[in-house]
C-alpha cells in the first residue's frame, strides 16, 4: 500500500473537480468507479457497468456481497488501516462477480478530506485483473515445477556426466552394430530385411528376401510393407505388432503361407525369425526379419515320407520281412514278419546270433560271411537259403537282399527277406529231376563213348573212308553231348548245394596248355594262340577250372566267324593271376553284359539264333570262380569281339 500522509492528489482533485467533469471522466474509464462514506459502510457505484453486485443502489452490505470469504480478513485490515491513516487504499484481492464466479480486482480508493482534515467521502476504482492473475498463477505453478525439474535435471546431468564417456562409447557401439546389422542384411545369403515406422516400410532388404516374397526392389520401396505383400498381412501383421509392442523375438519353422510371386499364387514354406531392434530406452523401434525359403526341403521330405509310406505298404502287401543292423553296435532289429520266417513269436526278443543259428548249417557260415562282407566291403547281400523254425522246426526257404545304408550319420546294414519255399521246392524237384536224368544219361553215354573210341581205333586204317570219318565225327558229338550233360549235372549239384570244390596246388600255365591242346583237337576252323606267363601256382579245383576255361574257349569259337583267331593270355600279378580269352566275334551289347552270367540267359538275335546252347555255361563258370574267391568279367564291342577275363588268388 502506498504511503501518502499529506495527500497532495486528493487536495488537487478536491479543488479541480466539478460534478459534471468528474462524471465525464468516470464514464470514459474502463474501470468500475464507486464512492464510499467515510467509514466504508455504504457504497455507491457510479458508472453502473455491473462489475459489482447491486450496482446503482447504495448498499450497506457491499463488503459481504463483493468480497469472498477467503479475502475478508485481509481486505478488512487494509480498509481499517486506510481509514485510520486517512491515506489511499490500494489492494489486489479476489472478488465475487455478478455471475457467481471469483475474479481478481485491483482496488484503489482516495479519501476526500474537509477543511479540518476529516474524511468526508472515498472515491475508488476497481480494475479487473483476473486474466493477469491467472497468468501469474500459472507462471508461478510452472516455475515451481520447473524448479523441481531443474533439480532433477541437474541430478541427471551429474549422473550423465559421470557416465558420458561410457555412454558415448555405448552409442558408438550401438551405431556401429546397427551399421553392421544393415550391412549384414544386404549381404546375407538368407532372406533378410528391416521393417520400421508407422505405417511400416522396408528400410533395408537383400535380394534373397525380395526373391522369397517375389517382389522387385522398386515395388517395395514405393509402398508400405503390408501394401507390398497384402496376402501376408492377415497372418503376419499381428505378429509384427506383437514383436514391436513386447520386444520379444518371434520364431516359426516351416510356416506355410500363400505368396503371390510374379503374379502367381504359390504355397511356400518359410523358416523365419522376427528380431526386434531395441533403442536406448529399451523400446522396439524396428524388426529385423530373417527368412529362409524351405519349400524345396519340406516338399522333398513330404515326398520321402510318401515314398516311405508306399514302401511300408508294399513291404506289408508283399509279406516281406525287414531288418536293420546297426554298424557300430551290431544290434539286430528284425520285423515281426522276419521273426515269423525264423519260427519266432512276433514279440520275442531275437538277437543276431539267435537268427543266424536258425539258418541251415550248410548255409550258416556263408550268410555270416556275406553279412560281414557287406559291413567291411559294402558288398550287396543277395542269397537264397533255408532256415529252420525255432519253435515249429519247419524248413522255410527265404531270399535275403540287403545293402549298407547311411542314414542320420550312422551306418546300417538293412534289407528285406521273403519266403520262397514253394518256388524253391519246385526248383529242387526240377533240379533233382535234371540231376537224375543227367546222371542216368551219363552212364550209357560213357559206354557209347568208349565203344566209339574202340571202333574209331579199329576203323582208322579202313578203306571205307565214310566209316573211318563217321567214327571221328561220332566221337566229337558224343563229347559235346557229355559236356552238356555234365553241365546239367553240375547245375543241379550247384543248386542243391552239392557242388564239391576239390582244391590242389598246381601251375595255372599247365592247366591252360592242357585245355588249349584238348580244344585244338576238336576245333578246325579257328586259330587258338596261347601266350603263357611265368609258372604261377594256384590252389584250386583242376577239373572245375578246366571246364570254365573250355567253356570260355568254346563260346569264343561259337560266337565268332571261322578263320579268326582266339588269343589266350595269362598275366600274373602280385596277389592274383588273370587269364583272358579274346575273340574277334559278334561281341556283346552293354545292355546284355550284366545279365550274361545269369542262369539260362542267352542273347537273342539273328547272329545267335542258329547257335545251340542252354545259357548255363557262363552261369556255371561264374559260380565256380566265385567258389574260388576269384572274379570274372568281360569287355566287348558289338561287331568287333569280346574278351572274357577271370582271375584267381595266388596259392
Ligand atoms: P550258351 O552259349 O550255351 O547259350 P553261355 O552261358 O555260355 O550259354 O552264354 C550265354 C550267352 O552269352 C550266349 O547265349 C551268347 O549270347 C553270349 N555269349 C557268350 N560268350 C560269347 C562270346 N564270346 N561272344 C559273344 N556272345 C557270347
UniProtKB/TrEMBL annotation:
Pfam families: HATPase_c (PF02518), HisKA (PF00512), PAS_3 (PF08447), PAS_9 (PF13426)
Protein name: histidine kinase
Coiled-coil intervals: 132-187
GO MF, one annotated term: phosphorelay sensor kinase activity
Naturally occurring in which organism (per UniProt): Hufsiella arboris
EC code: 2.7.13.3
CDD domains for the chain: HisKA (cd00082), PAS (cd00130)
Catalyzed reaction equations: ATP + protein L-histidine = ADP + protein N-phospho-L-histidine
Lineage of the organism: Bacteria, Pseudomonadati, Bacteroidota, Sphingobacteriia, Sphingobacteriales
Keyword Repressor in record: no
Amino acid at each position: 500500500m502506498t504511503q501518502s500522509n499529506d495527500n497532495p492528489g486528493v487536495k488537487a482533485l478536491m479543488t479541480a473537480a466539478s460534478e459534471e467533469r468528474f462524471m465525464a471522466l468516470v464514464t470514459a474509464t474502463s474501470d468500475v468507479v464507486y464512492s464510499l462514506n467515510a467509514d466504508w459502510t455504504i457504497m455507491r457505484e457510479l458508472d453502473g457497468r455491473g462489475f459489482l453486485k447491486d450496482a446503482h443502489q447504495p448498499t450497506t452490505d457491499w463488503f459481504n456481497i463483493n468480497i469472498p470469504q477467503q479475502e475478508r480478513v485481509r481486505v478488512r485490515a487494509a480498509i481499517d488501516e486506510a481509514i485510520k491513516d486517512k491515506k489511499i487504499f490500494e489492494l489486489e484481492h479476489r472478488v465475487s462477480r455478478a455471475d457467481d464466479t471469483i475474479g481478481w480486482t485491483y482496488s484503489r480508493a482516495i479519501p476526500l478530506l474537509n477543511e479540518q482534515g476529516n474524511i468526508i467521502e472515498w472515491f475508488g476504482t476497481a480494475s479487473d485483473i483476473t486474466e493477469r492473475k491467472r497468468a501469474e498463477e500459472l507462471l508461478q505453478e510452472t516455475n515451481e515445477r520447473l524448479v523441481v525439474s531443474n533439480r532433477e535435471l541437474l541430478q541427471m546431468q551429474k549422473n550423465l556426466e559421470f557416465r558420458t564417456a561410457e555412454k558415448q562409447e555405448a552409442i558408438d557401439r550401438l551405431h556401429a552394430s546397427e551399421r553392421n546389422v544393415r550391412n549384414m542384411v544386404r549381404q546375407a545369403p538368407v532372406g533378410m530385411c528391416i521393417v520400421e515406422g508407422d505405417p511400416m516400410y522396408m528400410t533395408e532388404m537383400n535380394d534373397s528376401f525380395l526373391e522369397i516374397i517375389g517382389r522387385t526392389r522398386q515395388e517395395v520401396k514405393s509402398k508400405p510393407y503390408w501394401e507390398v505383400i497384402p496376402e501376408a498381412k492377415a497372418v503376419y501383421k499381428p505378429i509384427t505388432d506383437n514383436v514391436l509392442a513386447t520386444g520379444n523375438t518371434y520364431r516359426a519353422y516351416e510356416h506355410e503361407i500363400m505368396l503371390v510371386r510374379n503374379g502367381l499364387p504359390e504355397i511356400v514354406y518359410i523358416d523365419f525369425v522376427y528380431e526386434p531392434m531395441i533403442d536406448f530406452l529399451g523400446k522396439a523401434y524396428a524388426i529385423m526379419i530373417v527368412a529362409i525359403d524351405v519349400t524345396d526341403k519340406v516338399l522333398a521330405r513330404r515326398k520321402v515320407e510318401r515314398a516311405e509310406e508306399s514302401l511300408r505298404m508294399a513291404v506289408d502287401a508283399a509279406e516281406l520281412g525287414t531288418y536293420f543292423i546297426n554298424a557300430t553296435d551290431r544290434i539286430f532289429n528284425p520285423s515281426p514278419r522276419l521273426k515269423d520266417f525264423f519260427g519266432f513269436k512276433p514279440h520275442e526278443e531275437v538277437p543276431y546270433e539267435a537268427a543266424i543259428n536258425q539258418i541251415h548249417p550248410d548255409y550258416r557260415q556263408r550268410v555270416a560271411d556275406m553279412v560281414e562282407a557287406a559291413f567291411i566291403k559294402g558288398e550287396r547281400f543277395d542269397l537264397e537259403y533255408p532256415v529252420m523254425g525255432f519253435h515249429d522246426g519247419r524248413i522255410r526257404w527265404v531270399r535275403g537282399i540287403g545293402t549298407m545304408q547311411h542314414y542320420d550319420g550312422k551306418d546300417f546294414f538293412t534289407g528285406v527277406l521273403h519266403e520262397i519255399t514253394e518256388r524253391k521246392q519246385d526248383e529242387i524237384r526240377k533240379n533233382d529231376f535234371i540231376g537224375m536224368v543227367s546222371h542216368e544219361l551219363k552212364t550209357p553215354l560213357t559206354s557209347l563213348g568208349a565203344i566209339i573210341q574202340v571202333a574209331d581205333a579199329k576203323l582208322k586204317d579202313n578203306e571205307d573212308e565214310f566209316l573211318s570219318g563217321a567214327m571221328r565225327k561220332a566221337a566229337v558229338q558224343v563229347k559235346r553231348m557229355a559236356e552238356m550233360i555234365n553241365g546239367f549235372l553240375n547245375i543241379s549239384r550247384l543248386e542243391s548245394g552239392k557242388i564239391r570244390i576239390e582244391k590242389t596246388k598246381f601251375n595255372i600255365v599247365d592247366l591252360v596248355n592242357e585245355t588249349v591242346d584238348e580244344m585244338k583237337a576238336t576245333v578246325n576252323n579257328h586259330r587258338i594262340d596261347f601266350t603263357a606267363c611265368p609258372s604261377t601256382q594256384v590252389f584250386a579245383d583242376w577239373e572245375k577250372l578246366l571246364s570254365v576255361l573250355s567253356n570260355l574257349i568254346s563260346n569264343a569259337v561259337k560266337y565268332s566267324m571261322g578263320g579268326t583267331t582266339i588269343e589266350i593270355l595269362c598275366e600274373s600279378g602280385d596277389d592274383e593271376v588273370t587269364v583272358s580269352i579274346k575273340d574277334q566275334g559278334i561281341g556283346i551289347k552293354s545292355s546284355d553284359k550284366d545279365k550274361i552270367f545269369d542262369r539260362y540267359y542267352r542273347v537273342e538275335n539273328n547272329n545267335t539264333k542258329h547257335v545251340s546252347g542252354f545259357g548255363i555255361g557262363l552261369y556255371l563258370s561264374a559260380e565256380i570262380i566265385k567258389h574260388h574267391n576269384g572274379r570274372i568279367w568281360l569287355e566287348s564291342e558289338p561287331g568287333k569281339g569280346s574278351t572274357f577275363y577271370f582271375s584267381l588268388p595266388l596259392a
